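The following record pairs a protein chain with its ligand, adenosine monophosphate.
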Amino acid sequence: MPALPPGSTIGILGGGQLGRMLAMAAARLGLRCHVYSDASGPAFDVAAETTIGAFEDLGHIRAFAERCDVVTYEFENVPLGAAAAAASMRPVRPGPRALEVAQDRLVEKQFVAGLGLPVAPFANVDTRADLDDALATLGTPAILKTCRLGYDGKGQARIADGADPAWALSAIGHRPAILEGLVAFEYEVSVLLVRALDGETRFYDIPENRHREGILATSTVPSRLPPVAAERARQIAARIAHALDYVGVLAVEMFYLGADAAEPILVNELAPRVHNSGHWTIDACTVSQFESHIRAVAGWPLGATGRHSDAVMENLIGHDADHWAALAAEPGTALHLYGKNEARPGRKMGHVTRVKASG
Ligand code: AMP
């Protein structure tokens, strides 16, 4: 398919802040966005067209897709049926296979391990007996994670040495899960890449990510990651993208275990979409992750992913955003607010990127 010309419409399934920043990037290229979501959200303020509908209403999804030239998504829990319904009308990029893999931690771990790539030791846990077996094999400390619908540390329970495993099962609501050995990592990083329709792949600089209470707090570039480990991390992410025949921005979250580890990089999880750890690219790169995603799904040439500035991105969670006026006055700081009216604890209200031109 030739590149979609300016004036074309990109459909976005999901109406959150990622959709908002995608729509803003698309507008810069003269492309329109049509957002479909089950409720109004941050993307609705900036999209050319919006539709509110259930993701289970496949007729509604098909009618929406018919009015778009290509369809993408901004969250990985888009029901597969909705993605398939959209795909029956228009190309869906990235393809539904990426959703299928990323929606289920067990499928995801098996997929990554099946490519011969390194992951934390894991086992499938559906019952108490499975958990006892898994603990006997993997030992403690360990971390129990629901297979589906866990994010920002939700649906997870850590099992310390000597802890009662029954508690962990009830903490995650007795849902199908995986047990993972707790990895003693030095720090966390993520590879953000963009892959075009013809397979050309470009990378952003790899940020170092810090979490607070399971939620991303900061992403910093440059990271401390040694060049050899960074190269290995890029290779791993590219292998995953290739295996999925991926189109768009893919984020691969990883643990860095240190230069002395036999395998210094482990894959933690995939996000088949633009990612919070790439928000700094708006202010520190010529072409942001959002524009890269739009270019890729619209069949455009990829843009320059290089970084012109050092950057620290800090999420504004809950009432952090109340300090918007002071943040807006900070020199060298780019303030991004998502237009959410109610600051609930743990809710991502915006972010700031503190930039410094790199030497
Ligand atoms: P996840 O939802 O899998 O990204 O997990 C949320 C956070 O929990 C990660 O960013 C890590 O900080 C931590 N975590 C997850 N899995 C492990 C693990 N196997 N070992 C150590 N820390 C982990």
